[in-house]
Amino acid sequence: MIVTGIQPTGTPHIGNYLGAIKPLIALQAEDEDTYAFVADYHAITADFDPKALRSNSIGVAALLVASGFDTSRGRVFFQSDIPEHLELAHILGCTAARVGQLNRMTTFREKMDAATEKESGETPSLGLYSYPVLQAADILAYQDDKGKPTRVPVGSDQSQHLNFAIDVAQSFNHRFGQTFIIPEPVISCTPRIMSLFDASKKMSKSDPDDMNRINLTDDADRIRKKFRKATSDSLYIPLTVEEIGDRAELRNLLTIYGAFAELTFEESLDTFAGKGFGPLKAALTDVVVEKLEPIQTRYRELIVDPLFGHSLRMGAMAAGILAAETTARVRETIGLSDSAPAALEERFNLVVPNYDK
Ligand code: TYM
């Protein structure tokens, strides 16, 4: 089984595509059981606009499918259609997650530090603090019935969250007996894609300046303009990887070129060695426009297709059955009320196994 999520905090960009969407689609070819969800519960942990949340959520789902996610082999759904993610998060938060660990999470600490620096700054939400627990629940809700670990394709920025999910699963099992199969992170081999202006920051959906990223929906003119304005220097592109040194912007553009042109980093460097940024930016624009064009055509069809909405509901139904089964088992394990299976029966018109036998 494969499970991953993308937050609808904006439009997915080429970092999300290279770090998560492309690897997810490649993995899906080897596994029938793939669940990709729009992490809308996560997107409300920071400031958000309800209308934008809704349209971004549909956009993320459509871009996943337009990028090649096969809905006949896997499921795409909205996280908030499956409230079991929240129930499981609460249970894990009480039984297996410790504040000592949450205090060390870099995403929360960065936001907390930023708020403390601004005198009038509001501190982050409680939801942002417990975000990793919800992410652990997102993953652990989906258990393979043959006992195989769930693989979770993500970009390298998510390593800390995935290690936390592993710790939570181990600590729950330790306390209550074998319940969760330990998940397996699949970290993308493409390095983190960085901002076009400041390559010390990652390319991000929530960056207020749109020029820092290439959105999957950007048209050719906008892509050209963004690459043209991307930070560069006046030096030549060197012959060897070592000589790139701390030229982080150059490293980032060569990484993006290589990933889209299906070349290794060294081959990407060889293509431009001895030239300036001009030819690199021109070739980068061409290859990104060429690769995004079919995705954008499909995306425009999907967002007006009623069958697409139907496939999301079917996805939620299939995912909901699995998540509800896991949650019912966990409730039973820890001694909560056992009427959940009856409610399950009503919700999905299912015959639910009796775990007492
Ligand atoms: P999110 O929405 O920030 O990013 C979605 C996916 O894209 C990857 N990614 C990147 N990869 C390379 N370069 C970048 N600049 C870049 N920015 C983002 C992320 O690693 C991620 O794989 N917490 C998650 C969403 C989530 C999730 C989950 C993921 C919620 N529950 C359960 C896996 C399993 C997040 O904020 O991703």
Structure description:
The protein is built from 16 helices and 5 strands. The chain has helices at 14-28, 40-43, 50-66, 84-95, 99-102, 106-117, 126-129, 131-140, 159-176, 220-229, 241-244, 248-261, 265-272, 277-302, 306-334, 340-348, and strands spanning 2-6, 34-38, 74-78, 151-154, 184-187. Strand 4 (151-154), helix 9 (159-176) and strand 5 form a beta-alpha-beta unit. Helix 3 crosses helix 14, helix 12 packs across helix 13 (265-272) and helix 15 (306-334) packs antiparallel against helix 16. The mean pLDDT is 94. Bound molecules: tryptophanyl-5'AMP. Tryptophanyl-5'AMP (TYM) is lined by residues 4-7, 15-16, 18-20, 39, 42, 135, 138-139, 152, 154-155, 157-158, 161, 192-193, 202-203.
Question: Quick gist of this model?
Answer:
The chain is built from 16 helices and 5 strands.
Task: Itemize the secondary structure elements and their pairings.
Layout lengths: L1 E5 L7 H15 L5 E5 L1 H4 L6 H17 L7 E5 L5 H12 L3 H4 L3 H12 L8 H4 L1 H10 L10 E4 L4 H18 L7 E4 L32 H10 L11 H4 L3 H14 L3 H8 L4 H26 L3 H29 L5 H9 L9
Parallel strand pairs: 1-2, 2-3, 4-5
Helix pairs in contact: 3-14, 4-8, 4-15, 8-9, 10-14, 12-13, 12-14, 15-16
The structure holds tryptophanyl-5'AMP (TYM).
Low-confidence stretches: none
Query: Tell me about the biggest sheet?
Result: 3 strands, parallel
Instruction: Summarize the amount of helix as a percent range.
Output: 40-55%
The class by helix and strand makeup works out as mainly alpha
Cα shape: globular
